[in-house]
DNA sequence: AACAACATATAAGAGCTCTGATATCATGGG
DNA sequence: CCCATGATATCAGAGCTCTTATATGTTGTT
């Protein structure tokens, strides 16, 4: 069963193309774009998840780990791992809550802000390529669909 | 910065909604759907990646680990991990290639076929919910977009 | 026959993500 | 006042995914 076997389609062909399962296409697209982002950010050693976290902390300075998890649709444990790696890299700072003894505020460090700025330039280029060849109306449909999938209640019967 | 802070939007609101970055929305949607699938398959202990692998092996019996990686847009190493876990669970069988001394054919075991059948019923339900509230034309646009993102050359300048 | 080029498999190491469990802290009802 | 409830943080374990590196097998060229 080598690469020349005509019964195995390539990505975008046959069942793996526009006639395939939406869930499968979604999985493939997200994986491909994630890889593309991480290749673009490889020079800085920043992952897609880290870029998302940096963006969130930049937009909402002083949030907690639990806040970040809610924003990024992650579990607090996952967020904690990402925050730990970013802290180890010196990109963010943990500050204890003034009153609450458990909460820790998160803020970008100066180097974290500079890093985010550099990453943004590259990711924005990719973001722009994401809509090439699609009308405004089609893009609207895509956006509405993605939001609908992301907000569908997972605990539904 | 508790949950009541009005400056932090929920998923689907503000910048996290239809006006947000497409890459971010894609990441969110794929994560949410992956979780939904794995919750539906939790009873069987099957992950989304394993379901995809089982489906591929069922559709193209006798493929190799490298074939599977190409089909699923994964590295051979990643595919090898998934295959290893499925083999350990007894869902698939490795057969040595008749001629080529290195290649191993993959096939579902009887229990693997039965498992896939049960998983399919549940996942197909979710797949059906994925298009609720969207016209055929909109769905076409979404499919075309997902395929375009998945097949965009990652090595592009 | 020997070597180069390519394909396949696999191991190691890192990061992401989940579930489950544990500990700490805050708040409200008895 | 004390405790139940809920929020926060964190540890441990598992699976997925990548990169890098290594070993083995096949094929075509010289």
Descriptive labels:
157 residues, Arc Repressor Mutant, subunit A, mainly alpha, DNA-binding, homodimer, globular
What does this protein look like?
- The structure is a homodimer of 157-residue chains.
- The first copy, chain A, has six helices and two strands, in the order H-H-H-H-E-E-H-H.
- In chain A, strands 1-2 form a two-stranded antiparallel ribbon.
- Chain A has helices at residues 22-40, 48-59, 65-71, 76-88, 110-129, 136-151, and strands spanning 92-96, 104-108.
- Chain A has one domain (14-129): Arc Repressor Mutant, subunit A (Orthogonal Bundle), CATH 1.10.10.10.
- Chain A is globular.
- Chain A is mainly alpha-helical and 157 residues long.
- Chain B binds a DNA duplex (30 and 30 nucleotides) through helix 1, helix 2 and helix 4.
SSE sequence of chain A, one letter per element: HHHHEEHH
What share of the residues of chain A lie within helices?
Answer: 55-70%
In one word, what is the shape of chain A?
globular
CATH class of chain A: Mainly Alpha
Question: What structural category do the secondary elements of chain A indicate?
Answer: mainly alpha
- Count of separate structural domains of chain A: 1
SS strand fraction of chain A: 5-15%
Strand order of the largest sheet of chain A: 1-2
Regarding quaternary structure, what we see is homodimer
Whole-number average pLDDT of chain A? 87
CATH topology category name of chain A: Arc Repressor Mutant, subunit A
Largest interface: A-B, 71 and 71 residues
CATH architectural category of chain A: Orthogonal Bundle
